[in-house]
Design brief:
Length: about 575
């Protein structure tokens, strides 16, 4: 009995120990979990920080200073990838992007990428600064621009959450203005940079992009003032922002931006109070309402500002920054370079090549290979001609004429005529391949929109036989193509415009137009039908019409892509269509 009691006590003791042990383990795990949750994210980032800073140091102290810019870029990008969005502390993520921006600008002359990296660095840590040992004029300029884009940094006030924006200028926009009356814009600069030019970039009703108006230095006040033109002041909201430029034409002062603009209400009725005006000047008078449509509406002519803005090749953010209003950007990049959308001296003459391939449309035709019987009194006479009226001539697979014209004409005699019960020697109609045309091209600009020119070359991949030539149904000995053409280029600047312009053309000339169709011929005595090719040969006259788009590069190379429709006549009337592709050079 005592032994049983003792065993029971031991069992109870063991169970108690197990429960205590399990409770302690649970408590320890719970405390560890709470510690993990309460530990700052930055504590976990310390190991990543150390590795990232080591890579950054090697990239800048070893690779960059040794001009191994690709190596420096690779190390920094590896560190950025390892840090991700939150695996490193914010100062380290900012340092990596700042250094990558320095490498992009100082080593690879890529200011677009460099500025973008600086913006990301400032957003990650607004207190980050440039390394004084690595500063250059270009890097400092990009850093200043990045501060403005990031919405922070010394000397760059952040934009308010709502209402009118702030910036480097002291400026209060007018509250309202009357329809088709110039909008006065006056601002005073409060920064330390020396400004040589100040502009207001504005957008009114119906305008798809910002335009530029110069703000002139006003002697008495020391500020900058100008008028937004009355033709652009339409009922609705007028919005604009300010930019100031130094003597290098770099934007060093801002007031607002394209996404946070100053706004003025434009009314059709008379406004209350004193008419808005520039300091010391009379209120501007309204323009006469001519009924013109708002700028940039379909059908309205766009004015090209060729007096202000950046020159061709300089960096830009939008068309309004440039003379000629064309800011060419690569895909997904915020900055581009200014290019001219109108050649300063438009080319007058263009030379190049044109290629076209015909798809002909043929009608239904019976007995396309059968010939008229030969003169029995003169077996050697070779005047046998096709009995069809569609201009068809047949050839074998090797390109020789079918049927044979020499000898007694027995091959022609074997060809059975087409009947409703037995389809033979018959073309059913439809589309069929024709000639490939390779042409030298010349155009002369008679007016800014009209080109007069010629095309001369060869019609290739055509009829291989000789019978059509013997019958005088083919143009010349060689398959020549001679064409006169007039082209109308749409758009205000026509042939001188850089970029895509639509065009229409009308032409005519002489050439061979040949379309091939496979046919089956039943011959007397043969159980199997013979497969031959019937060529519809026509010409030499033709008229062509068409249109497409032309793309002129700033280098005056013109790429052409369009569609032409041909109407050939002579031996038969055959329409055809085909691509009209070319490349030309203007001078």
């Amino acid at each position: 009995m005592a032994r049983a009691f003792g065993a029971q006590q031991r069992i109870l003791a063991t169970e108690t120990v197990v429960k205590i042990r399990n409770g302690l383990l649970f408590l320890i795990l719970a405390l560890l979990g709470v510690g993990i949750v309460l530990t700052p994210r930055e504590a976990f980032a310390q190991n990543k920080d150390a590795a990232a800073k080591a890579l950054s140091k090697k990239a800048m102290d070893e690779d960059y200073l040794a001009t191994d810019f690709a190596g420096a870029q690779a190390k920094l990008e590896k560190a950025i990838t390892a840090c991700g969005a939150d695996k490193c502390s914010a100062p380290v993520r900012a340092e990596l992007r700042r250094n990558l921006g320095v490498v992009a600008i100082g080593g690879m002359n890529d200011s677009v990428k460099g500025t973008a990296m600086f913006v990301e660095a400032l957003k990650a840590d607004p207190n980050i600064q440039l390394d004084p040992d690595l500063k250059t004029k270009e890097i400092e300029s990009a850093w200043a621009a990045a501060k403005k884009q990031a919405g922070g940094g010394a000397g760059t006030p952040t934009e308010p959450a709502g209402g009118q924006p702030s910036g480097d200028f002291t400026h209060t926009p007018i509250a309202e203005q009357t329809y088709r009356t110039p909008v006065p814009v006056y601002a005073e600069y409060k920064g330390e940079e020396k400004l040589v030019r100040v502009v207001a970039k504005y957008k009114g009703l119906g305008m798809s992009e910002f335009k530029v108006v110069e703000l002139k230095k006003m002697g008495e006040t020391g500020g900058f003032g100008g008028l937004i033109p009355c033709a652009d002041v339409q009922v609705g909201a007028m919005q604009y922002y300010l930019q100031g430029f130094n003597d290098q034409n770099d934007p060093v002062a801002v007031g607002g931006n394209p996404k946070n603009t100053y706004k003025v209400t434009i009314k059709r009725e008379k406004i209350e109070g004193e008419a808005p005006h520039l300091p010391g000047e009379a209120a501007p008078a309204a323009c006469a309402d001519t009924g013109d449509c708002p700028p940039d509406f379909p059908g309205c002519k766009k004015k090209v500002d060729e007096t202000h803005g950046k020159d061709n090749g300089e960096t830009c953010e939008e068309d309004a920054d440039c003379k000629g209003k064309l800011c060419e950007k690569k895909k997904n990049e915020s900055e581009g370079v200014c290019a001219e959308n109108v050649q300063k001296k438009a080319p007058k003459m263009f030379v190049g090549v044109n290629i076209s391939f015909d798809i002909g449309f043929v009608g239904s035709q019976d007995d396309v290979c059968k010939l008229h019987p030969k003169d029995a009194g003169d077996p050697d006479k070779t005047s046998a001609t096709p009995i069809n009226s569609g201009g068809y001539y047949c050839v074998r697979d090797d390109g020789s004429d079918y049927p044979l014209r020499s000898g007694d004409g027995s091959e022609n005699t074997k060809i059975q005529l087409n009947t409703a019960a037995r389809q033979t020697d018959h073309v059913g109609g439809g589309s069929a391949p024709g000639n490939l045309r390779l042409m030298a091209a010349f155009d002369y600009a008679v007016t800014p929109n009209i080109l007069a020119g010629v095309r001369a070359g060869a019609a290739l991949l055509g009829y291989p036989g000789s019978a059509a030539g013997q019958d005088g149904k083919r143009f010349g000995i060689a398959p020549l193509h001679l064409e006169a053409r007039g082209t109308y280029v749409l758009g205000k600047d026509g042939v001188g415009a850089v970029g895509i312009q639509p065009y229409l053309f009308l032409g005519g000339g002489v050439s061979t137009f040949e379309t091939q169709v496979s046919v089956s011929v039943v011959e007397t005595g043969n159980a199997t039908a013979r497969k031959v090719t019937a060529w519809q040969v026509t010409g030499p006259g033709f008229i062509t019409v068409g249109g497409g788009v032309r793309y002129m590069l700033p280098s005056k190379v013109v790429l052409l892509g369009g569609l032409r429709t041909n109407f050939a006549f002579g031996n038969a009337f055959v329409p055809s269509v085909g691509p009209d592709i070319g490349v030309m050079y203007g001078f």
